[in-house]
C-alpha cells in the first residue's frame, strides 16, 4: 500500500511542486542575504550617468586615512542624498557616512557652518570641506580640497592673440576655466610683455594658440621657467596665411621647443578618416581614437578626441629632456605644406602621409633634486576652446594634461559625463513621414490584415 502511494501520480506532482517551492524559497533567501551584504548595481546607460566616475573611484580607493561624509538635512529627506553617499561608502571601508538633522542638532550644524538643508561636509583627518553641490562633482571636489593642502594656480599667457581665459564666446576658454575650478585649480591671466617673468605662484603655464610672434624676452621667460623646474602646456596652431586670419610663425617659441626635442612642423593636417565624417567632422579636424602609454592619455582608451586646424610634430629626446609621444593622427590623414590657399590638393605628392604625431609630453632635467621641468606640446589650440572642449574626450585630455603638469597624477582619469541630450531633431519632411506612417499607413495595414483574415474565414 505505501509503495503504491509513493508511485501514485498525485504524489509525484506534490513532490515536484514541493521541490520547486523549496528551490524558489532558497533562491529568494540567498538573493536577499547577498543583497543585504553586498550593495551591487549595474549601470546600463551609455555614459554611466548613474555610476561614480573613474576619477572619484581613484581618489576614494586611494585614501590612506578615514574620511567622514556628514549629510545635513531634515530626517524625512535623508533619502535625497542616501543613494549617492552610499556609492561613496561602497568604494572604500575608510569612508563613513553620517546623517544629521539641523533642527534636532542645531549646535553641530552651527559648528559646521550649515546654512541650507541638503548640504554635505567631507572631513579627512582634521580638514573639513563643504561640498559646493550635492552631486558627484561637488562631493568629489570636497575630497580633492581636503587632500590638496597647497594652492595650485594655472597661469594663461595673454597679449599675443591667444584664446582669452574669461571669454565665453566660441573661441574663449571660460569653460576650460570652469573645469579647472572643479579640480580645485585657481586660474589667472599673465602678460609677459609687461613683465617678462613667470611668477613663482604659477603651478602651470598655458600658452593657448598665440596668433602673433612672442618677443624674445617672453620666450626667455618661458625657457627660464620650465628649465628651472616649471611646467608648461604649449598649444600652437598652423601658421596659416589666409587673408585677415594670418597666424604668425612664432619662430622664437618654436625654436625653444625644438631645443627641448619637439619640432613643430609648418603644415596643416587633413584627416580623411570616414569615422570623422560620420561624427560630423570635416577633414580639417583630426580625429584621434588611440593613445600611447604616457600617463596623461593612458586611461583614455575608448575615448575620441578632435583637433581642429592642427599641425604635426617630430620628437626626439635630448641630453636634458626626455620626450614621449602622446598620440598620432589616423593612417588616413595627411599634412599639406600649402598654408596660403583654402583649397588643398589631397593628391599632391608633396603631402606628408599619416599617421602624424599630434601631441607630446616631456620632462626637463634641471640637475636639482626634486626639481623637474615638464612640458606638453599640442599642434592645435581650438580643441580646448569653448566650441570644441565638450567634444567627447577633449575635456578629459585638457584636465589630464594640467593634472600631470601639476604633479597631480592621482587626479588623472575619465571624469563624470553630463546627461546626454538624446532628443531627435527631424526636418519637416521627416516629421510629415512620421505622421503619415503612424496615423494612416500602420492603421491601414492593420485594417487590411483584418479584412484579409475575415475574407479567408468567410
Summarize the structure.
With about 450 residues, the protein is of the alpha/beta class. It contains 12 helices and 18 strands. It has helices at about 1-5, 10-35, 55-60, 80-90, 105-110, 135-145, 175-180, 215-225, 250-260, 275-280, 395-405, 430-455, and strands at about 65-70, 95-100, 120-125, 125-130, 155-160, 185-190, 205-210, 230-235, 260-265, 270, 285-290, 305-310, 315, 320-330, 335, 350-355, 355-370, 370-380.
Key structural traits:
single chain, 458 residues, alpha/beta, Glutaredoxin, Rossmann fold, 2 domains, seven-stranded mixed sheet, four-stranded mixed sheet, 12 helices, 18 strands
Q: What would your notes on this structure say?
A:
By secondary structure, the protein is of the alpha/beta class. The chain folds into 2 domains: 54-147, 3-Layer(aba) Sandwich (Glutaredoxin), CATH 3.40.30; 153-411, Class I glutamine amidotransferase (GATase) domain (Rossmann fold). 33% of the residues lie in helices and 21% in strands. It has 12 helices and 18 strands. The protein has helices spanning 2-7, 9-37, 54-61, 79-91, 106-111, 136-147, 174-182, 216-227, 251-259, 274-278, 394-405, 428-457; strands at residues 67-72, 95-100, 119-124, 127-130, 153-158, 186-191, 204-208, 231-235, 262-264, 268-271, 285-288, 305-308, 313-315, 321-328, 333-336, 352-353, 357-368, 371-378. The strands form 5 sheets. It has a 7-stranded mixed β-sheet with strand order 6-5-7-8-18-17-14, sandwiched between helices. Strands 2-1-3-4 form a 4-stranded mixed β-sheet, with helices on one face. The radius of gyration is 30 Å and the shape is globular. The two termini are 58 Å apart. The model has no long low-confidence stretch (mean pLDDT 87).
Amino acid at each position: 500500500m505505501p509503495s503504491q502511494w509513493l508511485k501514485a501520480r498525485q504524489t509525484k506532482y506534490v513532490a515536484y511542486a514541493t521541490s520547486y517551492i523549496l528551490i524558489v524559497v532558497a533562491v529568494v533567501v540567498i538573493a536577499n542575504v547577498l543583497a543585504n551584504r553586498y550593495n551591487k548595481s549595474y549601470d546600463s546607460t551609455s555614459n554611466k550617468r548613474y555610476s561614480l566616475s573613474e576619477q572619484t573611484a581613484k581618489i576614494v580607493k586611494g585614501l590612506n586615512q578615514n574620511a567622514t561624509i556628514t549629510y545635513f538635512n531634515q530626517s524625512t529627506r535623508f533619502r535625497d542624498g542616501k543613494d549617492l553617499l552610499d556609492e561613496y561608502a561602497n568604494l572604500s571601508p575608510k569612508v563613513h557616512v553620517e546623517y544629521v538633522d539641523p533642527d534636532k542638532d542645531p549646535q553641530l550644524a552651527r559648528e559646521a557652518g550649515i546654512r541650507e538643508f541638503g548640504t554635505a561636509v567631507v572631513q579627512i583627518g582634521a580638514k573639513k570641506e563643504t561640498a559646493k553641490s550635492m552631486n558627484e562633482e561637488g562631493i568629489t571636489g570636497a575630497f580633492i580640497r581636503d587632500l590638496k593642502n597647497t594652492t595650485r594656480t594655472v597661469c594663461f599667457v595673454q597679449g599675443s592673440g591667444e584664446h582669452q581665459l574669461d571669454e565665453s564666446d566660441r573661441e574663449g576658454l571660460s569653460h576650460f576655466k570652469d573645469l579647472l575650478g572643479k579640480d580645485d585649480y585657481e586660474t589667472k591671466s599673465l602678460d609677459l610683455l609687461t613683465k617678462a617673468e613667470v611668477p613663482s605662484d604659477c603651478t602651470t603655464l598655458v600658452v593657448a594658440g598665440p596668433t602673433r610672434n612672442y618677443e624674445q624676452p617672453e620666450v626667455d621667460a618661458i625657457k627660464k621657467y620650465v628649465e628651472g623646474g616649471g611646467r608648461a602646456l604649449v598649444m600652437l596652431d598652423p601658421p596659416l596665411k589666409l587673408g585677415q586670419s594670418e597666424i604668425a610663425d612664432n619662430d622664437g617659441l618654436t625654436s625653444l621647443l625644438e631645443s627641448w626635442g619637439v619640432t613643430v612642423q609648418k603644415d596643416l593636417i587633413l584627416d580623411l578618416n570616414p569615422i570623422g565624417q560620420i561624427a560630423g567632422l570635416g577633414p580639417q579636424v583630426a580625429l584621434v581614437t588611440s593613445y600611447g602609454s604616457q600617463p596623461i592619455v593612458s586611461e583614455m582608451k575608448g575615448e575620441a578626441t578632435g583637433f581642429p586646424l592642427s599641425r604635426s610634430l617630430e620628437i626626439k629626446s635630448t641630453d636634458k629632456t626626455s620626450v614621449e609621444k602622446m598620440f598620432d593622427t589616423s593612417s588616413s590623414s595627411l599634412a599639406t605644406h600649402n598654408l596660403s590657399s583654402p583649397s588643398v590638393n589631397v593628391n599632391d605628392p608633396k603631402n606628408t602621409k599619416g599617421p602624424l604625431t599630434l601631441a607630446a609630453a616631456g620632462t626637463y632635467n634641471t640637475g636639482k633634486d626634486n626639481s623637474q621641468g615638464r612640458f606638453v606640446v599640442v599642434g592645435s589650440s581650438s580643441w580646448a576652446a569653448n566650441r570644441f572642449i565638450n567634444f567627447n574626450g577633449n575635456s578629459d585630455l585638457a584636465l589630464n594634461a594640467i593634472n600631470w603638469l601639476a604633479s597631480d597624477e592621482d587626479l588623472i582619469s575619465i571624469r563624470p559625463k553630463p546627461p546626454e541630450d538624446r532628443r531627435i531633431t527631424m526636418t519637416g519632411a521627416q516629421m510629415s513621414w512620421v505622421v503619415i506612417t503612424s496615423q494612416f499607413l500602420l492603421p491601414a495595414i492593420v485594417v487590411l490584415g483584418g479584412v484579409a483574415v475575415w475574407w479567408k474565414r468567410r
